[in-house]
Each structure stands twice: as structure tokens, then as C-alpha cells.
Amino acid sequence: MRYPPVPDRSVLVTGCSTGIGRATARLLRARGWRVFATARKPADLESLRAEGFEAIAWDAAEDGAGRAAAAAALAATGGRLGGLVNNAGYGQPGAIEDLTRDALRRQFEVNLFGLLELTNALIPTFRKQRAGRIVNVGSVVGRVALPFLGAYSSTKFALAAATAALRVELRGTGIAVALIEPGPIATAFSANARAAGVERLSAGGSAFEAHYRAQLVELDRTRHAEHLFRKPPEAVAKRIAHALEAARPRRRYPVTAVARFGALMARWAPDALLDAILARRR
To answer: 138-187 pLDDT, tens per residue?
Structure first.
């Protein structure tokens, strides 16, 4: 489907402290976009401002924060905005049985509910313009759920479903909705997941306690190592730019060979085969 160009090359990008968000903010600015970059921590906001970005504080876990961030961006542009890139999120490690209700709730608040609140706050503006782009950053684990990342996988499956529903609901409005599906990317994601695991995972007495200890050691050993299939965050940023700018944006953008392979496996492989492959992670 062909979509109209956005009336204003301004974009709100979430999760710009490091990694994909920061790379996206830089690439879009270089391509002529006015970038509003969000972060949660004051130090990260100052870092963004020092780099010349218009920084907006946003904590996805806080009710109402999305509406406030949307209002701040629209106030700065006179009520117009070209696009939204929903990138912020984190991965909560741990077996499903070891995650508390609070840990599960926070994972969904940050990775799904917060970004939907922000998106819903901007849709009326996009409708009024009859143009706009919504780009959600999902994951290959939104197609193939990984053991010990079940909570994170659940949020990415849910995001894929919400993105698909939103795309159809907005059909004919001039608003394009796309899903980016990264595989392994060289970012601070693993380190942040490790921190989330240490902080929120109730591993004491777990049947998987030895596995968790081994995984944390392995993460510390390999997080700076080269990975055969890993790509830099700029590879994701390029797909995001295409989704924002193309007359015919794709519905899904797999990034890396792992993401493309995961899409194929999710579509064609029997569940028994997937289970056997993923069980080797235990």
C-alpha cells in the first residue's frame, strides 16, 4: 500500500540512552529529521542534550508519562509530528516459574503498555494530518519464544499482535504502521538484562539456580566478544529510516540472518522441532 509523505519531518524516538535508539536518533538527524529523543535517567537526558538532541523525559512504567511526552513533542512543533519510533524496552531473564507478579507486570508495563499509551496519545494528531508513521521495535523472540526469556518474549509476541491490529485499524487513514524485528545486535541489551535478572529474579531455591549462575558467568565472559551473526545498531536504524520514509513501507523488517531464520522457523517448522532446538539452551 502506498502512503503519503509525512507533513513534518519530525519524529519522537524512545529509548535513546544507548544502542538502537541512539543510533536511530543520529541517523535520522543526519537525514534531515528533527529528532525528539527520550530517556529515563537525568544523566542520559543531559548526554542527549549535549549531543544537540531535543530530549524528553519518559519512563514507560509510569502511568500518564506517555501522554506527557507526546504533549511535550507536539508543543515544540506547533501540533505536528511526522513519526513515532517505539524502541524503549528491556529484557527480564528467568524461567517463568521464578518470576514474581511484580517482575512480570513491570516487563509488560515497560515493553507494551507504556508504548501503547504513547502511541495512542499521538494517533489523533496523525489522523488529523492524514499522515504519520508508527514504527515499533519488536524482536525475533516475538516469533520464537526463548526459554529463560519467556516474559520478554511474551511482550514481543504481544507487541507484534498489537502492531498488526493497529495497522489494520488505521488502514485508509494515511498512517503507516511497521514492525522492526532485530536479531542479535551489539548493544547494552544483554548487560541490562543481566541487571534486571540480578534485581528482580527470585533465583534462590530455583530448580534452575545452577543454570542462572552459569549464564551470568557466560554473559560476563562473552558480552564484549565478537558474534558471527551480530550486527551494529546502525543496521536497525537503517530499517527504521526506511519505515519512516518509504512510500511503501514494509509491514515487517527482519534484521540479521538470525531474525530471518527465526521468521522461517516460526512459519514452517513444527512445534516439536522448535522445542527440540530450544531445549538445547537449558
So the answer is: 999 999 999 999 999 999 999 999 999 999 999 999 999 999 999 888 76
Structural domains of the chain, with CATH: 10-281 (3.40.50.720)
Confidence of residue 196 (pLDDT cuts 50, 70, 90): low
Marked catalytic residue, from 3, 90, 152, 212? 152
How far is the CA of 152 from the CAs of 65, 85, 157, 260, 270, in angstroms? Answer: 22, 19, 9, 19, 22
Residue 152 falls in the annotated catalytic set: yes
